[in-house]
Amino acid sequence: MRRLALVLVVVAMAVFAALLSPPDPPPEPLAGLIIDRPGIESPIDAAIWYCPWAQSDTDRDSFLAVASLAPATADFTLPVAIPGEPPDQAQAVTSGPGASGITLSDIAQRGDSPGFIEFSNGPSAASVMVTGDVVAADDCVATGPDEWFFAGGSTMTGERLVLRLFNPFPETAKVSVTGFSEIGVEALGDLRSVSVNPRSWRDIPFEELLRQRQTLVISVRAEEGLAIPAMSWTSGTDEALWMGTDLSTTWEFPVLRDADLETSSIVVANPSINDVDVTVDLFTEEGAQRGAFSFTIPALSPLRIGLGEVDAAAIGALVTASAPVAASVVAVGTAGTAATAGSPDQAVQWLLPGVRSAGSNTASLWLLNSGDESVSVTISALTGGETRNSKEILEPGTIKRITVERSGVFGYMVTSMDRFSAAWSISGPRGIAFAAGIPVPVTVDAGTPGGTDLPGSDG
What we know:
The protein contains 2 helices and 35 strands. It is mostly beta strands.
């Protein structure tokens, strides 16, 4: 009888345990969410944006900027590269349309702090600006191609070129890293399979692997899982960072040069096994120079197009190729070091989060109308509350630079009924940075937002 009672107790306990609901699994903020592919442009209404390069230490700090066309909450997650350590987290709120952001040192001050931002509503976008002993900036990404390309790096004496692989996901990622330069296809056998631990990152310094390369093109292809790559290039005392891209037959560059950037170049990379013909149209504030350059790029080769002989303080460009290529701008001088990829297409609406003049740094919008007809654009300064609108006319075949205001602006939106391209820059005593704008898909209403017109505007 005693044995029977014991059996009954054990059975009862087992049944009771089975009836209890299992404990909730640990939160996986990225579970089931991947970077869509293929794709060239980030879908602006994506819920999560990934920022591989952000830093905060004694010498520099980062501003992580967000913008949204609808009222939204932006949740920031900054993984700690120590197993078992919880991530650092923060939150910002945007009006619709509006922009906001966080200063990284208010959340974490431990050097490198890549992270991701999840929006409750959209369309939305995000960017990172690093200031202090350098000035660097670029967009975060929400989607990516099967293979990312980085054109424009170099490893000459005194330069530093670092590829970052950021894995925000709960599974190990494996990628294949390849490259070619002016001397041909590079031997990177050790990088054919690179592992990146979950919710961690890994840096690959190419100035140690491939010395004295004047024009180096790096590509990153996912083999298992996903990792988001970014590139950092240091020349002199300033640093530039930029995200990889897909390939395209057209690339627009609203900004190629700024004051005291004595050396500015467009770098075009041909990763195919066939030669590619390339034509470059240049644009200034006065007008267009159609067919300014024409070249044939051999298979698996880069081409660096110097702009030193172009007599203009500000330059934009349209690169057209007979087959898909990658293209970036790199510029160095007493002002610092700047680099960014081009935009593969025009759009009728652009979001530019993080564009703000603060402290000793001044930001500018750069707008390019590469077409043959005038384009009227509405420029909306995004704050935490109101939206301030002004209007500009982009003459055919010209670029326009607009220095942004300092009164509580955290980003911009530029809209039109016609297609154009947009970018931004920031410069100060410690350096300069270029960044491409983020296009809003045509499915989103590109109408003029409500807001307050700036004094003296005609809208």
